[in-house]
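Annex B. Sample input.
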Amino acid sequence: MSAVQSLYEMTKHLLQIVESTFSKEDRETVIEEINALLVERDNLLSELQAPYSDEEKNLGKQLIEMNAVLDAKLKEIKQQIGEDLKQVKKTKTSTKQYVNPYQGMNNDGMFFDKRK
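Annex B, continued. Sample output.
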């Protein structure tokens, strides 16, 4: 199997993984699998050498289309992770304020009345 065919098959598998729906609990294992496939794919990209046959050129065109979809899906996953991190941070801040509502207030207990 040529490097282009291997790259095509790996990209196809990666696209299937990214397009599948997975829960937040399974997301860590899916991301690890995606990272491993991306590293292998990067190694295959470095092995590509010209000249290419007509079949390999057709696979290359399909790879370009698949890469566009793959990039969009990976950005979507990254955005979901960012939103989850914001939510966790917000929850953490809310919990701290609930436990100690006067934390962060800079009052020395004095009040000045401006009226005469």
